[in-house]
Amino acid sequence: MTPSDPEQPEQSVPSRPASHLAEPVAAPSAARDALVGGRTPLLLGAVAVSLLFGFWGLWRVFAPAPDSPQGQLESSERETRGQRRQIEQLEQRVATLSRSDQISRDANRDLQSTLAERDEEIAGLRADVAFYERLVGSTAQRRGLAVHSLKLQPQNDTAWHFTGTLTQNLNRGAVSTGQLTLAIEGTRGGKLEKLTWPLLRQQPNAPGMTYSFKYFQQVEGDIFLPPGFTPVRVAVRLAPRSGAPIEQSFTWADATRDVAPATAAP
């Protein structure tokens, strides 16, 4: 600039509005928030991974190794508990099977007993049918009053219960009436002895057992044998209301055939 040049006026810098001055300040804050918001999940993930590794490390430190005595002991205890459960289950199964087997055995025994009883009943019924056919059948032989059978059963050391079956089919429709008495021959003290009806009944003048039937009847009663007496033969005497008395004899063995040997004689 020369002194002759006229002094030029200073150019003024145009001023910006206040809004333009604030923009450079706001831009760094938003960027920082966006940066922090993007790193937060990464930081949380890193923390979670660190915690997992920490827990895994602690477990590895404090958990017993498989080959360590404590690990082997725990494994053995687990196996023992498992075996104990298996043993308990097997014992329960064995108990159930044993109970089932016992029930089956009891049922089979009851069935066998029932079948034996039925067989005995059938045999008895067959014997009864045969008896009735011989007595009243069309081909039955006509016979008068008779003692068909005599059975003796022990009651105690001296008492015996007798059952006599009386029959007749000679006069069909006619009623046979009378009295039955017994007399027993045997030995006592090495001597022969005969026990009459009053002695057997232990009653002086004891009346006989009354019977009354058309075709057959079972007459029952009790007799008493003195101690030391060994019976040999039993005589049955029938005294009908009309007609002559009838007497039949049975050996003691035949009369007590269905009795156990120990009780066949006093």
TrEMBL record:
<feature type="transmembrane region" description="Helical">
    <location>
        <begin position="42"/>
        <end position="62"/>
    </location>
</feature>
<keyword id="KW-0175">Coiled coil</keyword>
<feature type="coiled-coil region">
    <location>
        <begin position="73"/>
        <end position="128"/>
    </location>
</feature>
<keyword id="KW-1133">Transmembrane helix</keyword>
<dbReference type="Pfam" id="PF20567">
    <property type="entry name" value="DUF6776"/>
</dbReference>
<dbReference type="InterPro" id="IPR046703">
    <property type="entry name" value="DUF6776"/>
</dbReference>
<feature type="compositionally biased region" description="Polar residues">
    <location>
        <begin position="1"/>
        <end position="14"/>
    </location>
</feature>
<protein>
    <recommendedName>
        <fullName>Transmembrane protein</fullName>
    </recommendedName>
</protein>
<keyword id="KW-0472">Membrane</keyword>
<feature type="region of interest" description="Disordered">
    <location>
        <begin position="1"/>
        <end position="24"/>
    </location>
</feature>
<keyword id="KW-0812">Transmembrane</keyword>
